[in-house]
Amino acid sequence: MIILEDVSKSYSTGAPALNGISLHIEPGEFVFIVGDSGSGKSTLIKLLLRELSPTSGKIVVNKVDVGKLRHRKVAKYRRSIGVVFQDFRLLKDRNVYENVAFAQRVIAVPARQIRKNVPSVLSLVGLAEKYKSRPKELSGGEQQRVAVARAIINRPPILLADEPTGNLDPKNSWEIMKLLEQINKNGTTVLVVTHNREIVNAMQKRVITMKKGVIVSDQKKGGYIDED
Amino acid sequence: MRISSFGYTLKQGIKNIWSNKLFSLATIATIAACVFLFSIFYAVVTNFQNIVRQAQTGVAVTVFFDEGLDDARIQEIGQEISKRAEVSRIVFVSAEEAWDSFKENLGEYVDTFGEDNPLADCANYEIYMNDVSMQDSLVSYLQTVTGISEVHKSANVATALTSVNSLIGYVSLGIIFILLAVSVFLISNTVAIGITVRKEEIAIMKLIGATDFVVRAPFLIEGILLGMIGAAIPLVAVYFIYTNVIDYVSTKFSVLSSILVFLSADQIFYTLLPISLIMGVGIGFLGSLFTVRRHLRV
Ligand SMILES: Nc1ncnc2c1ncn2[C@@H]1O[C@H](COP(=O)(O)OP(=O)(O)OP(=O)(O)O)[C@@H](O)[C@H]1O
Ligand SMILES: [Mg+2]
Question: Cβ(A213) to ligand 1 under 6 A?
Answer without folding.
Answer: no
